[in-house]
Amino acid sequence: MATIWIVEDEERIGLLILAAVKKAGHEAVRLYDASELEKRLKKETPDLLLLDLMLRGKDGFAILAEWKARKETARVPVIILSARSAENDKVRGLELGAEDYITKPFGVRELQARLQTALRRVTPEAQKWIAGDLTLQPDAREAWQNGARVALTYREFELLYYLARRPGQAISRGQLLREVWGYPTEDDPSRTVDYHIKSLRAKLGDDPANPRYIETLRGTGYRWLAPEGHEA
Ligand code: CA
Fold first, then answer.
1. Taking phi first (over 0 means left), then psi (-120 to 50 degrees means alpha), and beta for anything else, what does residue 147 get?
2. Residue ranges of the OmpR/PhoB-type domain (predicted)?
3. Are the CB atoms for 27 and 3 separated by under 8 Å?
4. How is domain 3-119 classified at the CATH fold level?
5. 213: how many CB neighbours lie within 10 A of its CB?
6. Distance 9 CA to ligand 1 centre (A)
7. What is the CATH number of domain 129-231?
8. Cα of 140 to ligand 1 centre, how many Å?
């Protein structure tokens, strides 16, 4: 059970979220705006924050920026829940450090699934994961190859870390969408997974025709080839 705070000023949606979080077995605390949030933060810190963007007073982006700048809350995941569906807003939210961005209206089960994914990500993990010439630091989401830092996006790191812990396994695109993206569906019409695999390979200097790390399994998905990793 996790403690989840919800900052949402709309009564009906707030109640809906509250009920969904409780039904998923978590403790839920409802807050209406930044000033209530700040008051509460003087006493405690939640395990996850569900954050609306359009609020009276400070908006969600400002709250998020402060959240990620404060030492006590920087590592607490934030999921934005907003009616603003423009790509700009999503990108801004993710760049400010939100774990996920859910567009309203949303399904209760979708919210619960994405909540679980975000929470699973923050459960304590290895300090470092070493697989051949790669070193991954899940805390900081940083990767090194032969001691040189590889600049990865948030999702590229998650994808790499997921694959690297499953050497030799055939992993489907649907499984990656579910486990790495937290999507409730296994359909990938926009080829999100392939797109990210491609950029990951480019950054690792992995040739798909003669792969060292990631093998494409025709009609199936992908397989991690590099040596089995270990915690360090
Ligand atoms: Ca609102």
1. left
2. 126-226
3. yes
4. Rossmann fold (3.40.50)
5. 24
6. 5
7. 1.10.10.10
8. 31
Ligand 1 centroid to Cα of residue 122, in Å, is 27
CA of 52 to the centre of ligand 1 (A): 6
Ligand 1 centroid–CA 175 distance in Å is 33
Could you tell me the distance, in angstroms and rounded to a whole number, from the CA of residue 68 to the centre of ligand 1? 21
Alpha-carbon gap, residue 223 to 76, rounded angstroms: 31
pLDDT single digits (tens) 146-192: 989 999 998 999 999 999 988 899 999 999 998 888 787 777 777 88
- Whose tokens are 């996006």? That residue is 153
User: Ligand 1: distance of its center to the CA of 60 in Å?
Assistant: 9
Topology agreement, domain 3-119 and domain 129-231 = no
Q: What is the pLDDT of residues 98-141, one digit of tens each?
A: 999 999 999 999 999 999 888 877 655 557 888 889 999 987 88
Cis before 105? omega within 30: yes
CA of 46 relative to ligand 1 center, distance in Å: 21
**Which tokens in the block code for residue 229?**
């990793």
The residue type at 89: D
Amino acid code (one letter) for 98 = A
